[in-house]
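Example 9 (inverse folding). The structure is encoded as follows.
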């Protein structure tokens, strides 16, 4: 099984940014733990603060992997381009959020991703990604 993890803006600052919301682990540290827990899964990882780069990565991975875990971060609430990219690929996408976006500012309650995603996982910290992996493995 091949799973791509794509993270959007400011997620490169995990471990440093708003640790009360996002925790103090870097994503690279967490990814190493995921790879150890799921040795049968081949993971790829991409992070960008640039919307067009995220769209290009969704398009690329969407034809090469079995599933995508996408944390579009702030672009979740603004990007019709990501919405359209997800509609254009055969790989299923699970929308991931570390925090409970529905317990935060009102603008975070709108998602352009949810309507075209296989599912939505919010509010379980970095464990949201592990739950996303389980959804692809059928172990939920």
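The amino acid assigned to each position is listed next.
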């Amino acid at each position: 099984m091949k799973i791509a993890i794509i993270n959007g803006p400011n997620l490169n600052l995990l471990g440093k940014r708003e640790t009360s919301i996002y925790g103090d682990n870097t994503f690279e540290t967490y990814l190493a733990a995921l790879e150890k827990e799921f040795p049968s899964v081949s993971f790829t990882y991409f992070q960008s603060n640039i919307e067009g780069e995220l769209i290009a990565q969704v398009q690329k991975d969407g034809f090469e992997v079995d599933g995508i875990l996408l944390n579009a971060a702030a672009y979740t609430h603004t990007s019709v381009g990501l919405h359209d990219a997800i509609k254009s690929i055969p790989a299923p996408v699970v929308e991931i959020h570390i925090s409970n976006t529905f317990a935060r500012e009102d603008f975070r309650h709108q998602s352009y991703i949810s309507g075209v995603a296989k599912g939505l996982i919010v509010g379980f910290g970095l464990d949201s990604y592990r739950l996303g992996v389980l959804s692809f493995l059928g172990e939920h």
